[in-house]
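Narrative of accomplishments. A recurring question from our advisory board has been how the design workflow behaves on a single, concrete structure rather than in aggregate. To address it, we present the structure tokens for one chain from the evaluation set, followed by the sequence designed for it. No filtering or post-editing was applied between the two.
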């Protein structure tokens, strides 16, 4: 894991482990369409259950997994890459390890239009990728799960 340096997100200088509840709430409220990178067809995997959770809260989810492209998983169409997703997305939710998250972030940064948010799941830190995204105006959340944060901040 990279050092836990301070970084800028949404105009706030903070530790990557200290996201204000109002920021998390804004990200979850603003994110109508969410691309889930690493969506699994295995119902016991977190990516699957989190996708179903987000769908149940009114979000539209789109899976990204080359092995499942063309299928529907967790009530979501699945594409091979973010570049294949045919609609703009508000958030890219990354279910990859910390090292591989950098590639997912770089792929998200090639999207047009850019997503407003990149969310890296529990245990996923990639400070260099976060800085690249923030330099392009994309807000980054690391080491958090929307299914855990949702009930905490959306009361």
């Amino acid at each position: 894991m990279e050092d836990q340096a301070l970084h800028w997100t949404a105009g706030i200088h903070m530790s990557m482990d200290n996201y204000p509840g109002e920021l998390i709430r804004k990200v979850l409220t603003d994110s109508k369409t969410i691309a889930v990178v690493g969506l699994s067809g295995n119902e016991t995997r977190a990516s699957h259950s989190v996708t179903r959770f987000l769908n149940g809260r009114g979000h539209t989810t789109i899976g990204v997994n080359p092995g499942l492209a063309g299928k529907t998983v967790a009530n979501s169409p699945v594409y091979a890459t973010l570049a294949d997703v045919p609609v703009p997305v508000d958030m890219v939710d990354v279910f990859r390890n910390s090292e591989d998250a950098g590639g997912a972030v770089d792929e998200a940064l090639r999207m047009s239009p850019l997503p407003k948010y990149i969310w890296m799941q529990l245990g996923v830190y990639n400070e260099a990728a976060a800085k690249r995204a923030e330099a392009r105006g994309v807000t980054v959340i690391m080491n958090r799960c929307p299914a855990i944060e949702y009930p905490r901040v959306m009361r």
